[in-house]
Amino acid sequence: MLLKIPEYLFWMFFWNTFTDAAKYPVVLWHGMGDTCCFPFSVGSITNLLKTKLNNTYVKSLEIGGNIVTDYESGFFIHPNKQVEYVCQELAKDKKLTGGYNAIGFSQGGQFLRAVAQRCPKPAMKVLISLGGQHQGVFGLPKCPSLKLHTCEYIRRLLNYAAYEEWTQQFSVQATYWHDPFQEDKYEAHSTFLADINNEVFSNGLYADNLKKLDKFVMVKFLNDTIVQPLESQWFQFYKANQDREILPLESSKVYTTILTYMHEK
């Protein structure tokens, strides 16, 4: 997801949100259809953070070590493999040993949440999710891609075969495709989102590790043209067996298994 945010708004928000903004390094994870370093998107945000935070260390994640693989990762490298790769990269980066703040853009938001839940060292202090799909998506109306036919193919594939084993392994978007008309199938066959949301089985470590965050901030973009439903960006989703009415967060299964701590802190 490519973003254009007015600089003054961006800066005011992050300065007030980060734990010791000028002290801790920042880790960024881009969204679908983007890379770590495009100068017109995440690359410009990297430079802005360095400038405003007194040259603090900013690590914009590049999956696979080159820009081509990094771009392709947004569509074709399973999130579990990406998260494992990122955990290793963060663990061996000596500049992060004292902790870091994190910003995830679009699907990078839920990927960084998986990092927080699965890899608590080095310690993530604050997680800011900008347009992340924390309860998944049921539609990608304007999927960004350098080739338009790629998006159309992905949409058709998800509509008909999202929960087939080969689709789950081939398509990143399939791993967080959440079909409200097939909740049982989603929970049984989602190979990423259902796991990090504790919908497969209750993993106490996921909740405990998420609780270690100083802050978990979820930003919803009201004019988002990619994510359906928009409420997924605030950890909400459709009620079962329909795609119109949104279930209140506190009534959802994921709230009782992983997010209750938000009201306890």
UniProtKB/TrEMBL annotation:
One of its GO terms (biological process) is receptor-mediated endocytosis. It comes from Glossina fuscipes. Keywords: Disulfide bond, Glycoprotein, Hydrolase, Signal. The keyword Hydrolase applies. It catalyses: S-hexadecanoyl-L-cysteinyl-[protein] + H2O = L-cysteinyl-[protein] + hexadecanoate + H(+). This is Palmitoyl-protein thioesterase 1. Belongs to the palmitoyl-protein thioesterase family. Its EC number is 3.1.2.22. One of its GO terms (molecular function) is palmitoyl-(protein) hydrolase activity. The keyword Cell membrane does not apply. One of its GO terms (cellular component) is lysosome. PANTHER family: PALMITOYL-PROTEIN THIOESTERASE 1, PALMITOYL-PROTEIN THIOESTERASE/DOLICHYLDIPHOSPHATASE 1. It holds the Pfam family Palm_thioest. It is an enzyme of class 3 (hydrolase). Residues 1-21 form the signal peptide.
